[in-house]
């Protein structure tokens, strides 16, 4: 029996553009590496961060909240974030949380106007090794992600009120 490929974040930067590829299930476990890749893009001076979801099998609410939170943070620095190669399932997940209203998304095979060829970045993709995350940091990341989702759409506050309450209590223990 073949083992399933690892869930991972891959990234490459060139010409003021960073490509971040999500390989596998995008869960809270990958959120720290994703956040690290986007922060590295910001430090490298990228004007555009392209999130490629072609190999993404699923996303949990923490990961989607992390995308939204980083999108808002990048906007403050006049940087742009786009999601490409969304499957109908991924698009439905984002829409279900209202994120389609705040994120620029492109279905599989479609690219933002003027983006150009990404093959040089695809060939340069390397795994992002996230710094070790302790339980407090992970709980804080999860809380921030869900709080962001609640700000995006008031229905999310109702949807995630128990999660937010649990994480708030969890953070008090640290």
- CA gyration radius, whole angstroms: 16 Å
Average pLDDT over all residues: 94
The 3D shape can be described as globular
Strand content: 15-25%
Helix content: 40-55%
Largest sheet properties: 7 strands, mixed
Alpha plus pi helix count: 6
Could you state the order of secondary-structure elements as H and E? EEHEEHEHEHEHH
Broad CATH class: Alpha Beta
CATH superfamily: STAS domain
Point out poorly predicted stretches. none
What is the total domain count?
1
Structural class: alpha/beta
CATH architecture: 2-Layer Sandwich
Termini separation: 41 Å
Number of strands: 7
Write the CATH fold name: Transcription Regulator spoIIAA
Q: Could you explain the architecture of this structure?
A:
This protein has 174 residues and is an alpha/beta fold. It has a single domain, classed as 2-Layer Sandwich (Transcription Regulator spoIIAA). The protein contains 6 helices and 7 strands, in the order ββαββαβαβαβαα. α3 (88-96) links the parallel β5 and β6. The radius of gyration is 16 Å and the shape is globular.
């Amino acid at each position: 029996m073949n083992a399933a490929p690892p869930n991972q974040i891959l990234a490459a930067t060139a010409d003021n553009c960073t490509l971040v590829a999500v390989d596998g299930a995008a869960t809270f476990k990958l959120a720290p590496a994703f956040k690290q890749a986007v922060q590295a893009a910001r430090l490298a001076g990228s004007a555009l961060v392209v999130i490629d979801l072609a190999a993404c099998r699923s996303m949990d609410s923490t990961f989607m909240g992390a995308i939204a939170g980083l999108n808002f943070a990048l906007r403050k620095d006049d940087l742009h974030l786009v999601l490409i190669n969304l499957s109908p399932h991924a698009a439905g997940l984002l829409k279900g949380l209202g994120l389609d209203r705040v994120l620029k998304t492109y279905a599989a095979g479609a690219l933002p106007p003027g983006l150009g060829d990404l093959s040089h970045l695809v060939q340069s993709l390397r795994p992002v090794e996230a710094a070790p995350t302790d339980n407090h940091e992970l709980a804080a990341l999860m809380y921030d992600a869900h709080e962001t989702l609640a700000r995006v759409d008031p229905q999310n506050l109702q949807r995630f009120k128990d999660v937010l309450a649990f994480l708030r209590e969890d953070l008090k223990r640290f």
